[in-house]
Protein: Riboflavin biosynthesis protein RibD
Organism: Caminibacter mediatlanticus TB-2
Amino acid sequence: MENERWDVLLDLAINEAWKYQFLTYPNPAVGASLVIKNKVFVSAHKKAGSPHAEVNVLWDAFSFFHKTPKFTDSFEIHEYLIKHHNNFFNEAEMFVTLEPCSHIGKTPSCANLLKVLKPKSVTIGIKDPIKSHSGGVEILKNAGIEVNLLNDKRCFDLIEPFIKWSKDKFIFFKLAQSFNGAITGGYISSEDSLNWVHKVRDKIDLLVIGGNTVRIDRPTLDARRVNGKAPDILIYSKNKNFDKNIPLFKVKNRKVFIEDSLEEINDYKFIMIEGGENLYKKLKDFVDWKVFIVTPKIFDRINYKLEDSFKILHVEKRDDLIVFGK
């Protein structure tokens, strides 16, 4: 029964973390849940440099039961909780997808904060694969906190992009389609999904696109919807002849490469490929992950035709379905 309870509470943390997948680059996506005074709180790490998942969920819980300042800075929250916790968390149970960090970087150590707050228990989905960040389990145990390490495969899947881009690079293919597989004819995705794609573009280092898409759609391929940075562009094409008045060539502070090979990606760590049927056929076995944005609409258009299979890692339900697979 206890294992079932752990699974449910960890599942809440996992699902919350997936909402911010890719958006935490270069950090991993991490979620946390906290049970205290018969209430459940759930949060996640939302972007690099901001409070980690554990800190967000601790702050949410403490602020629910106490009047607190409107802090958003990690160091301020850590300091405030250390000074004012008054043993509030001693009966709390925390569930976190990744081992609390032991090091101090852009944010202070979550493990050292928990050592002071002393929750009753911390259940961890998976140990941190980065040695310089690990050690949180030992810090918690030495503080007398009950630690349960699950080695949950779902938590490994969640941080696989982080593992890959930390060591080398991570590449994924993004394809938007209607429910019946149409991928042509202008915008297909909802406004919500278009905004999400722009948030992701703001984080990636390089965007790869096919030459035909550039010539036909004449895109900008920036992150203007979120006032974000525009990634560098690799136009993957044998034909090097392009109209340089196409908007993507006019974006400041970006590099645009036109190549018939993918060697350029070796200088980047986080790469998204946006394309259609032809590019997908060429690169489907080259990428680490595939992300399908499936809009709940049926179009009277020709759908794409190819053969492929993949493992579904997660389905994020928004206005559209965002399906993460590999």
Residues 209 and 317 are 26 Å apart (CA to CA). The mean pLDDT is 94. The longest helix spans residues 2-18. DSSP finds nine helices and 13 strands in the chain.
